[in-house]
């Protein structure tokens, strides 16, 4: 016997991992984006600047892989960072598609300006979620990413 359509929809609504993660991501992103707005940056851009600082990636593909983002999405986001004057690229022997991506002086300045705002949002979330639970939530998300890895493709 099959379930009526409404029962199936209710089951999906109550149990879908993707829907739950997407909604939680939207809520968390909104908190960070609101906090970072005075610096003129959003949380995706802020995290890309952090990743670029740490990795000094040679290609967009390397950056995308390191931060778990599709190459096309990373490319679009990098275009915004470049347009804002926050990153620069030193062309290497591989031509215009290779060469270390790094923060420009403007990128370093906006990162420094945004960092305390990000820290406040981070602390706010820790208080909202419960300080003891915050590390547990982060660990679960790391475990999900590690377990699924490339299976998500």
From TrEMBL:
Cleaved signal peptide residues: none
One GO MF term attached to the UniProt entry: DNA-binding transcription factor activity
Top-level division of the source organism's lineage: Bacteria
Residue ranges of domain HTH marR-type in the record: 14-146
Alphabetized InterPro entries for the sequence: ArsR-like_HTH (IPR011991), HTH_MarR-typ (IPR000835), MarR/SlyA-like (IPR039422), WH-like_DNA-bd_sf (IPR036388), WH_DNA-bd_sf (IPR036390)
Biological process per Gene Ontology, one example term: response to stress
PANTHER family assigned: TRANSCRIPTIONAL REGULATOR, MARR FAMILY, TRANSCRIPTIONAL REPRESSOR PROTEIN-RELATED
Name of this chain's protein: Winged helix-turn-helix transcriptional regulator
Species of provenance: Erythrobacter mangrovi
Lineage: Bacteria, Pseudomonadati, Pseudomonadota, Alphaproteobacteria, Sphingomonadales
């Amino acid at each position: 016997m099959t379930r009526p359509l409404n029962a199936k929809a209710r089951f999906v609504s109550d149990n879908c991992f993707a829907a739950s993660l997407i909604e939680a991501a939207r809520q968390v992103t909104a908190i960070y984006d609101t906090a970072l707005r005075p610096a003129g940056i959003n949380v995706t851009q802020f995290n890309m600047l952090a990743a670029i600082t740490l990795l000094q990636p040679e290609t967009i593909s390397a950056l995308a892989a390191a931060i778990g983002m599709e190459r096309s999405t990373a490319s679009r986001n990098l275009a915004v960072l470049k347009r804002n004057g926050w990153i620069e690229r030193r062309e290497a022997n591989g031509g215009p598609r290779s060469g270390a991506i790094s923060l420009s002086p403007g990128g370093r300045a906006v990162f420094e300006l945004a960092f305390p705002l990000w820290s406040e949002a981070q602390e706010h979330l820790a208080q909202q979620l419960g300080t003891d639970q915050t590390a547990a939530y982060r660990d679960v998300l790391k475990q999900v990413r590690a377990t699924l890895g490339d299976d998500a493709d």
